[in-house]
Each structure stands twice: as C-alpha cells, then as structure tokens.
Write a structure and sequence with these properties.
mainly alpha; elongated
Length: 186
C-alpha cells in the first residue's frame, strides 16, 4: 500500500483486499473494487474497513463507500477543523446522472405530448419517511415497515401518502401536514 492520495492503484486495492478480507483476490474482483472505490483515498478506505471489524471480510464496495462518505460528513460537521472536506466523486456522478435521467424523461413527455403528474414530481423531491426511499427515487413496494405500520402506495403517484404529505408540507414552508387536521372536542 503505497499511496495516501485520492487515486488508488490496482496494487493498493489488492493490498487493501488481501489485508482486510484475507482471501485470494482475482483481477475481476480488483477491477470491481477499484471502480467502486473511485474518488476515495487509500487511508479513507482502510479506516472504513477497520471500523467494520470482522464484518470487513464480507464487505462490499458500496458498504465501504457508505462508511467513507459518513466519515466525510462527520468531518464536515465538525467546525473545529479548518480544512475543507474532500467532495465525493461518486455523489457528483450520481447527481449528474440522476439529473440527466430526469431531463430525458421530461423531454420524452414533452415530445409525446403527455402530461406529467405534478404531485408525483413534488413527492419525488423528498425522501420517503415510510420506506426510506431517497429523494429522486420511486417508493419501493413495501406495505409494512419494521415498526409494523401499514401504508400502501398510491397507484396514481406511485409513492406512499406520507411522502406526498411531507413534500406538500415542505413546499408550503411549514412543518405541519398540508391537509388541515380537524380538532375534536373530548
């Protein structure tokens, strides 16, 4: 393991995998990990794998990336350091591709003369509080979460109703749900 800079060589990735997984690694595995860990330094990846403990033997590149990004977020939150955090290359690529996909969808709808559902676009702009779908992603088919709460997706919007309510509350600029709550006397 020779470098501490943002670009890792194949030998750095190989050394990282051998050290933390203890398994024989093939060229295909090294290539997959090298692509998955692009934009992260050797030191960040090493720290992420060390923090996983024994689970590092079965770690995937996405888990390591998640730990690296969480560490960057923690560094961003701590105001006592005077250094600027390193921006995540993966996050920038994901944002770019997500925006390009939305532009393409809007272009197809405009070309075909189809109408877009404004509430769907509004709900898609916020993360789902029920199924934990990220902003920009459609809700999963989950109808019951781990807390035992049931919530079926709306077939028109393809989103959970609580997500639409959160989006409407955010767009209205207040924390209360969009639909007025009727008070009843006891």
């Amino acid at each position: 393991m020779s470098t501490l800079h943002a670009v890792m060589s194949r030998s750095d990735v190989r050394g990282l995998l051998i050290r933390h997984t203890g398994a024989h690694v093939t060229d295909d595995v090294i290539s997959a990990w090298e692509v998955g860990l692009a934009g992260f330094s050797l030191a960040e990846c090493h720290a992420a794998l060390v923090s996983m403990g024994p689970a590092a033997r079965r770690a995937t590149p996405s888990e390591v990336v998640g730990r690296c990004e969480a560490a960057r977020d923690r560094r961003t939150d701590s105001a006592d350091t005077g250094h600027r955090p390193i921006p995540s290359a993966r996050h920038n690529r994901t944002d770019y591709h997500q925006q390009a996909g939305l532009r393409g969808i809007h272009a197809v709808y405009a070309q075909m003369g189809w109408k877009r559902n404004a509430e769907h676009d509004l709900a898609r702009a916020v993360p789902c509080p029920f199924c934990r779908a990220k902003a920009g992603a459609v809700c999963g088919p989950l109808t019951r979460n781990r807390a035992g709460r049931r919530e079926a997706r709306d077939p028109v919007h393809r989103m959970h109703p609580s997500r639409l309510e959160r989006a409407q509350a955010d767009s209205a600029g207040r924390g209360a749900p969009h639909h007025p709550v009727k008070e009843t006397s006891r």
